[in-house]
Amino acid sequence: MRIGIKRQRGVCALRRSAMTRGDRYRAKALELLARAEVESSPVLKVEFEELAGAYLRLAQQAERNDALIVEFELPRKQKSKP
């Protein structure tokens, strides 16, 4: 389960999402593969399959992105000289 912070109207609220972005992309890929299975047009069948492959690649990229930890420090404000 993922927990994220959602800012709305100046207030921070925790939100929970049972599915990660990668999971949502994989679910979409499965939907597209199911559509490809019942598609009668060979051209559309291939398109659905290729689109499903693209969603699977998005899922992999989303997982790689989620694993990244980016740390940085903002520069301190310098006191202005009179």
Task: Please give a structural write-up.
By secondary structure, this protein is of the alpha+beta class. The protein has a domain of 47 residues. It is 54% helix and 17% strand. The chain has a two-stranded antiparallel ribbon. Helix 1 packs antiparallel against helix 2. The N and C termini lie far apart (53 Å).
Q: How do the strands and helices of this protein lay out in sequence?
A:
Blueprint: E1 2-8, E2 11-17, H1 21-38, H2 42-67
Antiparallel strand pairs: 1-2
Helix pairs in contact: 1-2
In short:
Helices cover 54% and strands 17% of the residues. The chain has two helices and two strands; from the N terminus they run ββαα.
Mean pLDDT: 82
Q: Cα-atom Rg, whole angstroms? A: 21 Å
Share of helix, binned = 40-55%
Q: Give the class from helix and strand content and strand pairing.
A: alpha+beta
Global shape: rod-shaped
Order of helices and strands: EEHH
- Put simply, the count of helices is 2
Write down how many β-strands occur, each being a DSSP E stretch of 2 or more residues: 2
% residues in beta strands: 15-25%
Strand arrangement, major sheet: 1-2
Instruction: Summarize the main sheet.
Output: 2 strands, antiparallel
CA distance, first residue to last residue? 53 Å
Segments where pLDDT lies below 50 for 5+ residues? 1-6
